[in-house]
Amino acid sequence: MAGRNEHSNEHCSGKAGDAFRLEKNIVLTGFMGSGKTSVGEQLARQLGLVFYDSDELISREEGTTISRIFEEHGETYFRRREAEVIARLSRQPPGTCVIATGGGAIMREENRRALKRNGLFVFLDVSAEEAYRRLAEKDDRPLLQVEDPLEAIEGLLAKRRPYYLQADIHIEAGTKPPERLAEEILAELAKISGP
Ligand code: S3P
Questions:
Q1: Which atom of ligand 1 is nearest to 75's Cα?
Q2: Which of 3.40.710.10, 3.30.160.20, 3.40.50.300, 3.40.50.720 is the CATH number of 11-192?
Q3: CA angle, 114 then 115 then 117, to 5°
Q4: Residues whose CB falls within 8 Å of the CB of residue 129, separated by 6 or more in sequence, listed in order
Q5: If you write DSSP's letter for every residue of 82-134 in order, what string do you get?
Q6: Which ligand 1 atom minimizes the distance to the CA of 160?
Q7: What is the pLDDT of residues 5-33, one digit of tens each?
Q8: Which residue CA neighbors atom 4 of ligand 1 most closely?
Q9: pTM, whole model, 2 decimals?
């Protein structure tokens, strides 16, 4: 499957030079706008792993944008395609890639179970207000094209938060830039991974 950074390392190291062995893939989860894609790219680059983004793969395979997929086929169809892509990503060999998932993927039990097999979940936690602020200028999130997007964000976040909170690593994203978040994740990985 096509990803970015087509090479992988056996040993990984953070800025501090603390080498560690990554025995799982890294799965980024969190609400829309939490920075999963930019942090994932950064992390994959630093670790020398392949980067996959589930939305990007769906969009590429369908030959159109996520918004268009929702518009033309509806959310149910999108969720089915998302589950298919996630099932494939879940079969990537452990310790070889970083996977950014769409913010709603966590709601399907089959997605959680599949990703958990080879993956370590990292939750990028943003508040509803911060997600709203980050997404205010964007029109590419079909679920937020409603009269009151902040209310929609609050509603979705309330339902999803219990699942996000089951992640192995919890990072307060706040207003931090992707580089900083990647460093924080590396530090957490170094703590829990073997030498
Ligand atoms: C969704 C999040 C989006 C995308 C789709 C649905 C969601 O991905 O999968 O618009 O349900 O939260 P991002 O989390 O990358 O924005």
A1: 6
A2: 3.40.50.300
A3: 70
A4: 150
A5: HHHHHHHHTTSPTTSEEEE--TTGGGSHHHHHHHHHHEEEEEEE--HHHHHHH
A6: 12
A7: 654 444 444 443 446 778 999 999 999 99
A8: 102
A9: 0.92
- Pocket of ligand 1 from Cβ distances under 6 Å: 32, 36, 55, 66, 102-104, 141-143
Per residue in 103-150, pLDDT (tens digit) is: 999 999 999 999 999 999 999 999 999 999 999 999 999 999 999 999
Question: What is the 17 CA–ligand 1 centroid distance (Å)?
Answer: 34
- Amino acid at residue number 102: G
Residue nearest to atom 16 of ligand 1 (CA): 32
Residue having the nearest C-alpha atom to atom 10 of ligand 1: 141
